[in-house]
Design brief:
The chain has 387 residues and is mainly alpha-helical. It is 69% helix and 6% strand. A four-stranded mixed sheet has the order 2-1-3-4, sandwiched between helices.
């Protein structure tokens, strides 16, 4: 234990003697979470700009426009006269949707002729385009239903009979786990964890590679009495402590600042996160030992960390990812971590449902760490022979 303690003290001195290390380990994670959290802090897309072409200019056309403008998601920002103007607004990304109200729509409705209201959606941004399209379909269906209702009542049907004829089958649905479809609750934690994984892998990379780059392996081995396992364990312990502190700040402070609830236990989330940190730091150590130079190890870190969030299955169903990519994604610590983390913070499930993911992360950490140990031991011996 004395040797491990010596390595811990040595690693802490090394960290706090470098301003860059202090910033990377203590400041950047918090600032990064605050910055990225601000992107989706509103939670919802509201008042998306829309344009309208009203070729009828009647009571019904004005009612249609008023319905669209009353939607919290849509704002009628432009009144235009033709499709060319709408194309120009779309090209300049000034409008997300265009509504075309044809001439004589009121006259034809009164004659009970079926009418079509074309809606043009700018889907360059999939999310905003999807929102306004759903809203447009709902609004037009509601307007059509209201017109049919008035027609039936005028024909002598009672209000109840008219409603039953319009809605012979009623839809009843309930949204579970983030029922408000809040983007902040859905996306922000996943993005935070992706960034944290990059920092954890980077910490593991630098903890080993820096010793060889600065040629301080000999002094490190003196501190641990030539026991590579104890040296790596001491380094790992330092970064695990930093990880624990960051996760405590994240769950108990930043989640509350951004209004992101953890439905289940914060302690369960922290426990799973420690397993995640163990796997990620150990993976960094393995990359450093295999790729040898800091430059190559950082490239390896980038190759793994950059696509990790996209491959994790957090935003795209994993079964829809190609088999080869899905197999690669399963080896990245972020994938099992986010699978388990969603069960805690969104679904409100307890640690018993998360244990398979925790065990998997621990197994990854052990395999990565032991592999890194054997390769690093061989490098230390070779470095000793070279001298």
């Amino acid at each position: 234990m004395k040797e491990i303690r010596n390595i811990i003290i040595r690693e802490l001195k090394s960290i706090f003697s470098s301003r860059l290390y202090v910033l990377a380990l203590l400041v950047f994670p918090i600032l990064g979470c605050l910055f990225l959290g601000g992107i989706y802090s509103s939670g919802f897309l509201v008042k998306l700009p829309a344009a309208v072409i009203d070729n009828d200019n009647t009571k019904i056309s004005r009612t249609i426009i008023r319905y669209f403008d009353a939607s919290p998601d849509i704002e009628i920002k432009y009144r235009i006269s033709n499709i060319e103007e709408l194309k120009d607004l779309f090209a300049k990304q000034k409008a997300v949707m265009g509504i075309y109200i044809p001439k004589d729509i009121q006259k034809n409705i009164k004659r009970q002729k079926p009418q079509n209201i074309p809606v043009f959606v700018n889907s360059a941004n999939y999310i905003s385009g999807n929102i306004v399209e759903v809203d447009a379909n709902t609004i037009i269906t509601t307007i059509g239903g209201g017109i049919k209702y008035k027609t039936l009542v005028k024909r002598g049907f009672s209000s109840k009979q008219a409603r039953e004829l319009l809605l012979p089958v009623k839809n009843s649905s309930a949204k579970l786990f983030n029922p408000s479809l809040n983007y902040n609750i859905f996306l922000t934690p996943g993005i935070w964890m992706s960034v944290i994984q990059q920092l954890l892998i980077l910490a593991g990379v630098l903890s080993i590679s820096i010793e060889f780059d600065l040629k301080t392996v000999k002094t490190m081995m003196r501190s641990c009495k030539k026991n590579v396992f104890k040296a790596m364990t001491g380094k790992l312990a330092v970064y695990m402590v930093f990880s624990y502190l960051h996760f405590e700040i994240l769950y108990r402070i930043l989640f509350r600042i951004f209004g992101i609830p953890i439905i289940s236990s914060v302690a369960a989330a922290t426990a799973l996160s420690i397993c995640f940190a163990f796997a990620a730091v150990s993976l960094g150590m393995l990359l450093s030992s295999v790729l040898r130079t800091t430059s190559n190890a950082l490239k390896g870190c980038l190759i793994i960390a950059a696509p990790a969030f996209l491959l994790s299955g957090y935003t795209w169903p994993p079964e829809q990812i190609p088999t080869a990519l899905r197999a690669f994604a399963q080896l990245i610590p972020l994938t099992p971590f986010l699978e388990g983390f969603k069960k805690i913070y969104v679904q409100g499930l307890g640690m018993e449902f998360v244990m398979p993911y925790a065990k998997r992360l621990i197994l990854y950490g052990i395999v990565f760490f032991i592999s890194a140990y054997f390769i690093t031991s061989a490098r230390v011996k070779n470095a000793g022979r070279a001298k």
